[in-house]
Amino acid sequence: MEKELNQLKNKYSIDWREFEIQSLFEKVPTKKLPYKAQDLKNRHDKIYCLPALTAGTLNQGLAYYVPREGATILKNVISVSANGANTGVMYYQPREFTVLQDSYAIKYIHDELKPKHYTYLVSALQKSIGGRFDWSNKAGWERIKTELIKLPVKFDGKIAFDYIEEFVNTLEAYLQAKGLKTWSRAKRKRKVCKDLKQLARDRLNGINFIFMNYLKLIRLNLIKD
User: Fold this and answer.
1) How many CB atoms lie within 10 A of CB 13?
2) Which residues does residue 78 pair with via DSSP β-bridges, in sequence order?
3) How many independent structural domains does the chain possess?
4) What is the structure's pLDDT at 224?
5) Backbone angles phi, psi at 149, to 5 degrees
6) Domain range for residue 210?
7) Pick the residue with more confidence: 70 or 218?
8) pTM of this prediction?
9) Angle between the N-to-C axes of helices 161-177 and 210-219, in degrees from 0 to 180, rounded to the nearest 10
10) Sign of the C-alpha dihedral, residues 61, 212, 175, 154?
């Protein structure tokens, strides 16, 4: 696996550069909803059908449902937990949802990105801010926007999205080659964690993204059963 990643890096002549989060992302404005999470428990029907984001981690923070009417409907963005023990936890959200409470969404400001690009970027963001915020220092946008993330760039200094896409494709191919496609989800996760913890010990540029990227790929079902 390390050999393939080195070849990929050389193919694109990749360098690495730090970016302020606010130079790449913006907070998405949303309408305040007239609901409380505790009042929405077990509500899921034809009217209460839009997943709603909170600060939790269950189902990527989408533990409740609200009516679509009056809600800001988001898709293809990154959600950020802004309260509690999970503050700072981020997920790529490829499907429609809205923001309910104690959380917000950010999106890339320069172009429309593919799901695999967002999968990689959310891992880079989590590497930067993960574990650095808590109850008394919540990961609100004003706090995280000046943090730095390290990304692969081309010779002109622009983010190498072609490299990123092939990087994720390489991870998918690795999973399939290892036979993980036919294993149960639990066994796949255990195998991936074991392999990637070993890889993460290497000092190769970019290798520190691998562990989180694999978990994101599995969670988002980019590797199909």
Assistant:
1) 11
2) 92, 106
3) 1
4) 39
5) -125, 145
6) 1-222
7) 70
8) 0.80
9) 70
10) positive
